[in-house]
Design brief:
single chain, mainly alpha, two-stranded antiparallel sheet, 5 helices, rod-shaped
Length: 94
Amino acid sequence: MSTPNARTVDIDSLMRRDGYMKPKEAARQLGCGERCLLDGLNRHGFPHTRMGRAKWLSQDDIREIRNLCAVPADRSKIARLRRAQTKTPARAAA
């Protein structure tokens, strides 16, 4: 009879072989904290795979999380910043 620990190691090796990673490794790859990623998985519906209580992320999941978190540029703000940079400063009255 196998011990639960030996079974966990088998599942871990199988998942890693298929290209999945634990949240700690995925958070490092995303450049965020593990807690932030876990909150996204639990509360905000970030894509992931569950095997029992363990959470696993594939490269496709990480790519999708990056797309979900991307903030598009506000064109009006960019235009205002460019205009402000190109304007010449007003001359002081002599």
